[in-house]
UniProtKB/TrEMBL annotation:
This is Type IV pilus assembly protein PilP. Keywords: Signal. It holds the Pfam family PilP. The keyword tRNA processing does not apply. The keyword Iron does not apply. The lineage of its organism: Bacteria, Pseudomonadati, Pseudomonadota, Gammaproteobacteria, Pseudomonadales. Gene3D superfamilies: 2.30.30.830.
Length: 175
């Protein structure tokens, strides 16, 4: 055991004797001299960045570009009536601030006062009844069944009059 110990010490001393610092580092010394000889002022200045300009998206109330446009038959088009128009003095309800296409019916509730529909959209599930308003086009709920909510919207006809447009929100099963 003692011989192995002295043998390890001897090998270590011979390895250390080989690291006397007189190795061939000429290529490294030459590279360092070249780097030090380079001029110091060759750093390019930082590019000038334009400051961020805020952008306000103003088309949020328009039709979604991902939905097909509604085809209008100009010859057989229904004419609006000046008798039908939204009530500008009516206080808007919360769900009128959202697009009607963003709602889906997920169920119904009923009690002694009547039937209610459960609509998912606008950040949660909302309970609505007949007479409530929904969507951006003055949509009034006219009937609620087990399978659908019927809504009548008041939309402009493009000629200064208004049309009543029926919409239906069907029950989405397994939601």
């Amino acid at each position: 055991m003692r011989t192995v110990h002295w043998l390890c010490i001897g090998v270590t001393l011979m390895a250390l004797a080989g690291c006397d610092g007189s190795g061939d580092f000429d290529d490294l010394k030459q590279f360092m001299a070249e780097v030090r000889a380079r001029p110091v002022g060759n750093i390019e200045p930082m590019p000038k960045f334009r400051p961020y300009e805020a952008f306000t998206y103003a088309a949020s109330s328009l039709r979604s570009p991902f939905q097909p446009p509604i085809k209008v038959d100009l010859v057989n088009r229904q004419k609006g009536s000046r008798l039908v128009q939204p009530d500008p003095t009516r206080v808007k309800q919360f769900l009128e601030g959202f697009n009607i296409d963003g709602f889906e019916m997920v169920g119904t509730l009923s009690n002694e006062t009547g039937m209610f529909a459960l609509l998912r959209g606008a950040g949660g599930v909302h309970r609505v009844k007949v007479g409530d308003y929904l969507g951006r086009n003055d949509g009034r709920i006219v009937s609620i069944t087990e399978s659908a909510v019927q809504v009548i919207e008041i939309v402009p006809d493009g000629e200064g009059a208004w049309l009543e447009r029926p919409r239906s929100i069907s029950l989405k099963e397994r939601s």
